[in-house]
Design brief:
- The protein is about 45% helix and about 10% strand.
- By secondary structure, it is of the alpha/beta class.
- The relative contact order is 0.12.
- Bound molecules: phosphoenolpyruvate and magnesium ion (MG).
- Phosphoenolpyruvate binds near residues 178, 199, 200 and 250.
Length: about 325
């Protein structure tokens, strides 16, 4: 809970019962940062750093990366910035990083798996982030994690990068929960991570065994499917057990209709596309935590995604 006047002055998002929910933006480049703030973003919950690496002939060097991250941080005017480490893999090929061909790129060497296979590139990205983003704003997030072993391995590389730059203060390091494994092991991850954020696009794809990019199964890929909601509930329990916060940075975070369920499950940060932020804030400000928790309870008991959606229609 925060004082009402302070929240209003900063345009923070506070529910009708005083519960604080952070509404931040997903960004894919520096140009979007200022626009997101103008639309009410309280910071950035997911900077997809792939923009720096795709559609070019050679990798950006450390200085180019540093300048790009610094530009995003400046655009946010001191607000928190969560930089996600590179999430490329077999399905997002880059000519200058030869990937072996994979039959199942979605199940392949993507995200943190690629980064730990190329620790030189991960170390370089960590240094560029640490040098580019002011410490007070800086948080780092790892994609496609399945267990605390990967987090520990990345933290060793991050600590080396901090040492190389002479940075003593720890930087918050979080993980995306976008594999069912990470959701199941959320308590173990939360013991070591500073925060967790649900990547609902991939979490839905992997939980429902339905390719997020395949139009033939598009109707199946619904993040409000009860199976996905149970994984989010599990992640929230794990985060709570270790006093960590849980956010959502997948597409479902931009849907005002889904917000009461996510908040009721224990989510306290929603990272949305900038354009969705004004409507999202307006909706969240009308909600109370008790109502959201009751709704989430009923959604968890639903049998199908359609049942969850009709529950939402009835209570909207
Ligand atoms: C997600 O999977 O929900 C996510 C936010 O990551 P991306 O969409 O970049 O895979
Ligand atoms: Mg993802």
């Amino acid at each position: 809970r925060v004082a009402a006047e302070a929240a209003a002055a900063l345009d923070l998002c506070v529910m009708a019962d005083g519960t604080r929910i952070e509404i931040v933006a997903n960004l894919a480049n520096a140009a979007e940062a200022g626009r997101a703030v103008a639309l009410g973003a309280e910071g950035c919950g997911l900077l997809r750093t792939e923009f720096l690496f795709l559609d070019r002939d050679s990798a950006p060097d450390e200085e180019e990366q540093r300048m790009a991250y610094a530009a995003v941080a400046a655009g946010l005017g001191g607000r928190p910035l969560i930089v996600r480490t590179l999430d490329i893999g077999g399905d997002k090929p880059v000519a200058y990083l030869p990937f072996p061909r994979e039959d199942n790129p979605a199940l392949g060497a993507r995200g943190i798996r690629f980064s730990l296979a190329r620790p030189d590139l991960l170390a370089q990205q960590f240094r560029a982030i640490l040098a580019g983003v002011p410490a007070a704003q800086c948080r780092i997030m790892l994609p496609m994690v399945i267990d605390a072993g990967e987090l520990a391995a990345a933290r060793v590389i991050l600590d080396e990068a901090r040492a190389a730059l002479g940075i003593d203060t720890p930087v918050p390091l979080g993980v995306m929960v976008e594999t069912p494994a990470a959701a199941m092991l959320a308590a173990s991850l939360a013991r070591e991570a500073d925060f967790l954020s649900i990547g609902s696009n991939d979490l839905t794809q992997y939980a429902l065994a339905a390719d997020r990019g395949n139009p033939a199964v598009a109707a199946k890929v619904d993040a409000l499917h009860p199976a996905v909601l149970h994984l989010i509930a599990r992640a929230a329990e794990g985060a709570r057990a270790h006093g960590r916060w849980l956010g959502v940075c997948g597409g479902i975070a931009s849907d005002p209709l889904a917000a009461p369920i996510l908040i009721g499950l224990g989510v306290t940060e929603l990272s949305a596309t900038p354009a969705a932020i004004p409507a999202l804030k307006a909706v969240v400000r009308q909600l109370t935590l008790g109502d959201c928790e009751a709704l989430a309870e009923r959604a968890l008991a639903a049998a199908t995604a359609a049942d969850v959606r009709s529950l939402l229609q009835r209570t909207a």
